[in-house]
Design brief:
about 75% helix, 2 domains, globular, 11 helices, mainly alpha
């Protein structure tokens, strides 16, 4: 009887391992194909086939829909990104725009250096598809709390910016970071020349800081006075 339980337990562990491996392969293949061809340019059947699966419905079996696969792609990267951000924020001794932006965005900047990663290009496609905000709203509480914490920290440091403009500033700074890093990721995948990482990261953070902190022009303030909204709320790169 004991040996039966051992065999069943080992078989269950093996099955779990195989399932995890299959799901991981589908997630990474989906990330790569969505990044290259766009969210609407790839079918779930193509992702399964590209992953080497004989079953045409393997993606539906593991994830149910394209939306759930996209969520799984985000979570696959966000788990490590969130932990890395927590570590960097814990090391911040004095909260400045530069230090807060670096703690939030450096993990994203670092991902562009990985040859096995298409996450920045994938996020860019997700943004173009118009699905970023809806997907982010369905992420776990931990990931959403991480976003809110960043937005709150930056907002506190933008007292010279009218509150109606702060979320847009954060959104624009995140978009700047995303598109520059996605372009660098593409260049690296095509083995094109790129700037040394330290220079790239530092110059990018210069641009993010400047984008966040620039005083609004008289034209912007005039346009704001005549605007009734709506004004965006939570805005940060996942």
């Amino acid at each position: 009887m004991v040996s039966w339980f051992v065999v069943v337990g080992n078989q269950a562990a093996l099955t779990s391992s195989v399932e995890q491996s299959t799901k991981e392969r589908l997630v990474l293949t989906g990330e790569r194909l969505f990044a290259i061809h766009g969210i609407d340019g790839v079918s779930l059947r193509q992702i399964g086939a590209e992953s080497g699966m004989a079953n045409n419905s393997v993606v539906q079996y593991h994830f149910g829909s394209k939306e759930r696969l996209i969520e799984a792609i985000l979570v696959n990267r966000l788990n490590n990104l969130t932990e890395r951000r927590k570590l960097l924020f814990a090391r911040v001794r004095s909260e400045t725009l530069r230090s807060v932006a670096e703690a939030q965005l450096l993990p994203i900047v670092e991902l562009a250096e990985r040859t096995d990663c298409y996450y920045l290009m994938f996020l860019e496609q997700l943004e173009r598809h118009g699905a970023m905000s809806q997907v982010v709203e369905r992420l776990t509480a931990d990931h959403q709390a991480s976003q809110r914490s960043y937005v709150t920290r930056v907002s506190r440091l933008l007292g010279h910016i009218p509150w109606q403009l702060r979320a847009a500033r954060i959104d624009q700074a995140s978009a700047l970071c995303l598109h520059i890093c996605a372009e660098r990721q593409r260049a690296r995948h095509f083995e094109l020349a790129v700037a040394p990482f330290a220079l790239h990261a530092s110059q990018l953070l210069d641009g993010v800081e400047a984008s966040l902190s620039a005083l609004p022009s008289a034209d912007t303030l005039h346009a704001l006075k005549s605007s009734s909204g709506p004004f965006p709320s939570l805005a940060a790169l996942p």
